[in-house]
């Protein structure tokens, strides 16, 4: 259908290429299309937005050799505590192979997703063009919030499939209960992620209450986290000038979150270095700013530890898929299928008696659900400022969310 975005690889001259690149940028960020200067009107490239002096990172670092899978579940996954695990990528081929030169050589012609257009179609650029874009002082080097490769189909598309063999899903995250939905129908769950300084991910909670791991192979990422239950209206206020993109969020809301009168949970800072794997439990808000040229792989998953929350969100947000999932669980994991049935009966009873599920859950859960139940997992990377904004709610209405995890 919208293959026009895909035609970038077929052109030759530089003017033609520039024209096509502009077209791709316009498609990916139509709100910046009034004038070329919109892309760099904030001057973030000249600011100290990527300077992390004074940022304190207190997240524990644990080498995988010192953390058994059972310990991970008990200490971090069940209590939903973020952690950084080191050494997991030491033996991955990606640690050797994912250099700019090799990536260009192997995948230079292949088009990776750099955004979505206003109709939700993927906007793609060939990898070699993207490398040029990143280092171009008139594009990636100057743009306030540069295009970001965030490709959730790299492992399925012919041209990039071999990349999947370059990393392994770490032992801690292998349960992957959505696999029972089937490869074709399960929500997207793995992304190749690459971007320069100032690109990143605006504040969000991952969809369907799934947890995530994110391994950085090159460069540095700055994370800001808020625990489950942090009201959306505090961390994503509906006001002019506060946008969802990482750069603008870090230069507005983040600064407020550091002030003495910040009304809600303290922001948790994290500075991710190459080779580190961040674990983000379901329900945690997170924003990520790339501090230099970064290369990462991330996957979302469901395990026994987050199953109940994910089930509730999936039943509500993806009802048809949830029934297919339940059917498969009845065969493969009858224990979890029984849990799902139990939860469903309890929720339906609550509905029938008109009682709010608030009484049986913390406010934290109602605010996770306001985010992730209403978005599908395919929106893991949402277009900044699009439907995300429409879904913003006032604090008061958020507390009334009838659904809670
Ligand atoms: O590396 C990033 O930009 C963050 C990724 C992220 O938050 C996500 O994949 O959900
Ligand atoms: Fe995320």
Automatic annotation (TrEMBL):
Chain ranges of the JmjC domain: 158-318
Biased composition (Low complexity): 355-376
Region feature Disordered, mapped onto this chain: 349-405
Stored PROSITE patterns: JMJC
Classification via Pfam families: Cupin_8
Transcription regulation among keywords: yes
Subcellular location: Nucleus
Record-level GO cellular component terms: cytoplasm; nucleus
Names of the cofactor(s): Fe(2+)
Annotated SUPFAM superfamilies: Clavaminate synthase-like
Comp. bias intervals (Basic and acidic residues): 384-405
Single GO molecular function: P-TEFb complex binding
Superkingdom: Eukaryota
Keywords: Chromatin regulator, Dioxygenase, Iron, Metal-binding, Nucleus, Oxidoreductase, Transcription, Transcription regulation
Family membership: Belongs to the JARID1 histone demethylase family. Belongs to the JMJD6 family.
Protein name: JmjC domain-containing protein
Native organism: Volvox reticuliferus
